[in-house]
């Protein structure tokens, strides 16, 4: 892909929701991709601060292009930027851009030689692949990444964390493709890994946990049509134990979808309000707004639903 094409995609992601703003000083005009900047950008994503991330993303993308051919360490940082860009594109429903960014992430991860970055790139690629009818390719990538991570005799705690998250992504991917056996296989593998990680001598402050597995099970069982089981996992989940606002918002979103599938619009609306409480910009995402619109159509008489629908509608960029 030509550089201006990728940069154009990066500049455009999220524009339909958020007008641009002043570039924060920590990322503007430096021309270098520093580990601290990448960590700060990742924090914006996990905090649900997508408008601010959208502001700093063009500078990070420009630096990632320069870093991708500058040795394994800088290629690794570039891979992190491409993964993050793909994830942000997914949040806005921009699947073509998400796929392009994931492809750049894979290339940079290969240059870095880091299996955990390859796994992160595979997870990033899986979402646009499965949403465009290519779940088989996504599962192949994820299985390869998982096998690569667990090939050694004693994987580190960080490697176990990455492997478990790959397995959870694969479980959800299989569920969306209506493949119950692989979905069950992968989620069980993730749960076993979470148990091993909990008893590790030096568990990392990563993503994998029993609560994270329960979160994925809500969406997985809903996709497979087992709404009762999805709601049972939702009832047992402690959102406060999830590590970030983005994850807590995801839990409420998936629970709202399951409740809507059970025709419980009032309870689904309660969960949508929890999404807004956890991460206000999450509730303005296209896919979450679709849930709000479905609830409002089913029960327009719900107290507060009309105001909520207006408040969480997409803001239009200035012209």
Shape: globular
Total domain count: 2
Quaternary organisation of the protein chains: single chain
Low-confidence stretches: 1-29
Major sheet details: none
How far is it from the N-terminal to the C-terminal residue, by CA? Answer: 29 Å
H/E element order: HHHHHHHHHHHHHHH
User: What's the overall average pLDDT, rounded?
Assistant: 87
Q: How would you sum up this structure, described in words?
A:
With 319 residues, the protein is an all-alpha fold. It folds into two domains: 1-132, no CATH class; 134-243. The protein contains 15 helices and no strands. The protein has helices at 3-12, 35-46, 50-67, 72-91, 95-112, 115-131, 135-149, 157-176, 180-198, 210-223, 227-236, 245-261, 265-278, 286-298, 305-311. α12 (245-261) packs parallel to α14 (286-298). The longest helix is centred in the N-terminal third of the chain and has 20 residues, at 72-91.
Concise overview:
This protein has 319 residues and is mostly helical. The protein has helices at residues 3-12, 35-46, 50-67, 72-91, 95-112, 115-131, 135-149, 157-176, 180-198, 210-223, 227-236, 245-261, 265-278, 286-298, 305-311. The chain has two domains: 1-132, no CATH class; 134-243.
């Amino acid at each position: 892909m030509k550089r201006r094409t990728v940069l154009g995609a990066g500049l455009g992601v999220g524009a339909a929701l958020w007008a641009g703003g002043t570039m924060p000083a920590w990322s503007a005009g430096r021309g270098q991709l520093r580990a601290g900047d990448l960590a700060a950008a990742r924090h914006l994503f996990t905090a649900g601060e997508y408008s601010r991330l959208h502001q700093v993303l063009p500078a990070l993308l420009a630096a990632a292009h320069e870093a991708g051919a500058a040795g394994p360490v800088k290629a690794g940082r570039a891979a992190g930027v491409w993964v993050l860009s793909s994830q942000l594109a997914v949040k806005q429903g921009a699947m073509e851009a998400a796929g392009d960014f994931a492809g750049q992430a894979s290339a940079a991860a290969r240059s870095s030689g880091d299996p955990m970055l390859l796994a992160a790139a595979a997870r990033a690629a899986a979402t646009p692949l499965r949403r465009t009818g290519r779940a088989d390719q996504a599962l192949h990538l994820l299985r390869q990444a998982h096998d690569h991570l667990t090939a050694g005799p004693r994987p580190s705690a960080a490697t176990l964390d990455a492997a478990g998250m790959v397995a959870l992504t694969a479980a959800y991917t299989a569920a969306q493709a209506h493949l119950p056996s692989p979905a069950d296989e992968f989620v069980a593998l993730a749960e076993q890994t979470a148990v091993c990680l909990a008893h590790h001598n030096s568990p990392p402050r990563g993503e994998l946990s029993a609560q994270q597995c329960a979160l994925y099970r809500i969406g997985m069982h809903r996709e497979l049509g087992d709404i009762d089981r999805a709601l049972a996992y939702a009832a047992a989940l402690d959102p406060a134990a999830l590590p970030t606002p983005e994850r807590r918002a995801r839990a409420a979103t998936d629970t709202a979808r399951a409740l809507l599938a059970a025709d419980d619009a009032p309870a689904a609306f309660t969960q949508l309000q929890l999404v807004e409480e956890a991460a206000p910009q999450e509730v303005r995402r296209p896919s979450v707004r679709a849930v709000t619109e479905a609830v409002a159509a089913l029960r327009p008489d719900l107290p507060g639903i009309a105001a909520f629908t207006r408040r969480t509608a997409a803001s239009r960029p200035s012209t």
